[in-house]
Amino acid sequence: MMKLNYIAIDFETANYNKNSACQVGLVRFENGIEVESVSSLIKPVDLYFVPEFTDDIHGLSYDDVKNSPLFPEVWKNIILPFINKDPVPLVAHNANFDMNVIKECCSYYGLEVPNLSYFDSLAVARNIWPDLESHRLTDLGSHFEIKYKAHDALQDSRTCGKIINIAAEATQQTDLIQLLNNSKVELCWL
Fold first, then answer.
1. pLDDT one-digit tens code per residue, 146-172
2. Which of 15, 39, 46, 163 is most deeply packed, by most CB within 10 A?
3. Alpha-carbon distance 117 to 114, whole Å?
């Protein structure tokens, strides 16, 4: 039995290129409860920040990341050790975005893309709560009274993980695979 163990992950990007990661947040959940977290700013390949990202979304700018490590250092020293410590599936809200950030950053730097399993909390939420008007992470957070700073990678990943626990409680599931089966969401692989 897998239990309700997973790692929520979220990336913020500097611009529309998926290889422009500028922040990552990871939160480990065991039996649906947060047990540890890590985050880092990332100096992106292209130091161009889309003004509306800086002004209206995550608020990060060149000045915030200019002295931060590049993706390969964050990948090797922060992300992989956190994931490999106790490998469990990753979860992200709109997972295609975050998984493409991993793929594109790894590809750009010539890093091997690991064989990681993941699932999408957006798909879980849509299937568990089809009557909700919106399934955006900010709207789910508001609906479930989760107070957080949206578009901060660590806080977004924490909220994503909490949503999965709420979904498990709503469906009375204590096993991740049963929750995914119940919500008709597949476990995917990078």
1. 999 999 999 999 999 999 999 999 999
2. 163
3. 9
